[in-house]
Write a structure and sequence with these properties.
Tscrpt_reg_LuxR_C; alpha/beta; Arc Repressor Mutant, subunit A; Rossmann fold; CheY-like_superfamily; 2 domains; 5-stranded parallel beta sheet
């Protein structure tokens, strides 16, 4: 999560120089955001993260040497890893689903309007994952169709308390911490604590993975 006293540092990773340049120009022109580096392949990401310590990495899926899924998985295995937002043309549900399971905090379509990309970077930097309702529905349907995933997910969720399960379901429905708090008559701090407990008990990295697990269990 970004420190609110400093600009949000962003690393842009895309093998298309034109796309990369457009993203850099757009983000550098936004208030409170600074692009600290850019890369044309996932292979370059670890070194740039070490050098620039970005809060958010915008990650393309298809790159020549190391693709976005592999790069995301490697990055999220590191301590204090930045959040990853996948950039995709969405030509493959399975690839995006794999990226989310690898630890990405969300995804954006490459034709997303610039203001929404800027908003997405800000939201992810402050702990609110990006889940496009239309695209997420397709991913969840695919995940839920896998019976093995369903049974494993249900078994995992049984370790949660009743309140933790309630919060997990609300997260899966795309509710923010404030919305969950208002509906359940809890403080936002209490909701954050429950989310943290859910992540720890289920050995997950972020809210997106909570959502995937809940939808797997409901399949």
């Amino acid at each position: 999560m970004a420190d609110v006293t400093e600009p949000i540092r962003v690393l842009v990773v895309d093998d298309d120089a034109l796309v990369r340049g457009a993203l850099v120009m757009m983000l550098d022109g936004a208030d409170g955001i600074r692009v600290v580096g850019e890369a044309g392949d996932g292979e370059e990401v670890p070194g740039l993260v070490d050098t620039h310590a970005p809060h958010v990495v915008l990650m393309d899926l298809r790159m020549p040497r190391t693709g976005g899924i592999t790069a995301t998985r490697r990055l999220r295995e590191r301590p204090q890893a930045p959040d990853v937002v996948v950039l995709t043309t969405f030509d493959s549900d399975e690839n995006v689903l794999r990226a989310l399971r690898a630890g990405a905090s969300g995804f954006l379509l490459k034709d997303t309007p610039p203001p929404r990309i800027v908003e997405a970077v800000r939201r992810v930097a402050f702990g609110d994952p990006i889940l496009s309702p239309t695209v997420t529905r397709r991913l969840m349907e695919q995940a839920s169709a896998q019976a093995g995933n369903r049974e494993r997910a249900r078994a995992a969720l049984r370790c949660l308390s009743e309140r933790e399960h309630e919060v997990a379901v609300a997260v899966a429905r795309g509710r923010s911490n404030a919305e969950i708090a208002a509906a359940a008559h809890m403080s936002v701090a209490t909701v954050k604590a429950h989310v943290s407990h859910v992540l720890t008990k289920l050995d997950l990295d972020n809210r997106t993975q909570i959502a995937l697990l809940v939808h797997d269990a409901d399949g």
